[in-house]
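look at this record:
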Amino acid sequence: MKKKLVILILLLFPINVFAYSDRLIIPGKPVGIEVRAKGVYIVDFYKVDDEYIAKNQGFKIGDVITKVNNKDINNIDELNLILNKPDTYKITITRDGKTLDKDLTVKKENNIISTGLYVKDRISGIGTLSYIDPETKIFAALGHEIFEGSSSDKFLLDDGNIYDANINSINKSSSNDIGELHASITNKELGEINKNEINGIYGKYTDDISSDNLVDIDSYENIELGDAFIRLDLGDKKEDYSINIISLNNNDQVKNIFFEITDDRLLDKTGGVVQGMSGSPIIQNNKIIGVVNYVVVDDVKKGYGIFIEKMLDEGDKLLQQ
């Protein structure tokens, strides 16, 4: 049945040198996530004088405004400061990886400056903190990229932060209806986000860490089908919940571990894999082997994970920049 998916040293030859540690801190805890864009996203249009003036001038949902009249635009406040009177402005946008210039004629309607654009410059939500390297303090979360919701494109990250958060309620998953974790996000900043990649978000952890109870890393070559655990904090305490690994796939970029939740305690709480669970560490034989990142929409007890080595390799690149 077809399933639907909701996420050096050079001697005689090059040698890959990895800076990440052999053992990791495995929080499995929810974090608040805020990412800020490289520019301002167009997310929808509204009518001005009974017409969609911006859409009719060639703008599209998902376009990212980076300049107005050759002046850099980093956020909505800067955009509003320039588009402050009826006029025609040269707008520089990013679309599908290309830079384009388009004219936007701004009008005044009911004594209000109207662009015809709905825009945003940041995204916030929750996810699960996957690991912290105790030596470098590089962290990773989610196991998949952050998308801009209106266009489903990869979010063009400028910077961001993770914050302490606590789960306060859960909407359970059911077939074709993915549930989600709800959390209270505090003002306590835990780290800086530097990368948004296909296999997760990455950055530098800035809060205090403890090197007690470190967990060994295991290679994908040693992963066995059968019993494993998801480590997750659902608001009361961190616990390990049993899963069954059904199959492995080293050829896919992100969907490497296919599993089914078998723990009745977790199924009673969540119904299956839910939004916000992305990033939960997968443990086998007391070693971290991967991270939860996708759910099977029409069979929510099942999901996918990415091999931990892929995330570690990506996180390692931060040290090489």
Observations:
- The chain has two domains: 9-36+122-320, 47-115.
- The CA atoms of residues 254 and 306 lie 5 Å apart.
- The first strand starts at residue 9 and ends at 10.
- The two ends are 44 Å apart (CA to CA).
